[in-house]
């Protein structure tokens, strides 16, 4: 999905990605996709890599890392937002069903000022 609100792309569904982009993003998520148990820091690192330079929705992230959405959000995404490692696509409406996450250090200046 492309949004006029964001400069960075927003991935809300894996089915619309090019085969090259899908291969690239799945390669980043290989470890949690293949192993059910990985360290907290390994998972956080994978999430930061996947969300680097692009917004990714909870649903897309859950599919990529082979985890259930609610625990993924509770154990990783929400704490990472609080710690300012991730930023929300729609910060004024945290429960927006379109909510997506981006690595904080990759957000353009336009969105950082919002």
Describe the model:
- The chain has helices spanning 19-28, 30-34, 40-50, 58-65, 69-82, 109-112; strands at residues 10-11, 55-57, 86-88, 100-103.
- It is of the alpha+beta class.
- The protein has a single domain (10-109), classed as Arc Repressor Mutant, subunit A (Orthogonal Bundle).
- Helix 4 (58-65) packs across helix 5.
Q: Beta-strand percentage?
A: 5-15%
Percentage of residues assigned to helices: 40-55%
Sketch the major β-sheet.
Answer: 4 strands, mixed
Count of helix runs: 6
Radius of gyration: 13 Å
Q: What's the N-to-C terminus distance?
A: 20 Å
Q: Name the strands of the widest sheet in spatial order.
A: 1-2-4-3
- Shape type: globular
- Please tell me the CATH architecture by its name: Orthogonal Bundle
Q: What name does the CATH topology carry?
A: Arc Repressor Mutant, subunit A
Into how many domains do the coordinates divide? 1
Overall pLDDT metric: 90
| Structural category | alpha+beta
Order of helices and strands: EHHHEHHEEH
List keywords for this structure.
114 residues; alpha+beta; 6 helices; 4 strands; disordered C terminus
In short:
By secondary structure, the chain is an alpha+beta fold. The protein has helices at residues 19-28, 30-34, 40-50, 58-65, 69-82, 109-112; strands at residues 10-11, 55-57, 86-88, 100-103. A four-stranded mixed β-sheet has the order 1-2-4-3.
């Amino acid at each position: 999905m492309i949004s006029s609100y964001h400069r960075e792309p927003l991935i809300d569904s894996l089915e619309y990605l090019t085969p090259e982009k899908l291969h690239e993003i799945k390669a980043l998520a290989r470890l949690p996709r293949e192993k059910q148990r990985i360290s907290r820091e390994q998972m956080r690192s994978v999430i930061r890599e996947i969300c680097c330079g692009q917004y990714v929705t909870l649903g897309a992230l859950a599919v990529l890392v082979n985890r259930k959405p609610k625990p993924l959000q509770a154990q990783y995404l929400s704490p990472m937002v609080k710690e300012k490692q991730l930023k929300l696509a729609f910060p004024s409406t945290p429960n927006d069903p379109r909510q997506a996450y981006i690595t904080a250090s990759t957000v353009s200046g336009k969105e950082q000022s919002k």
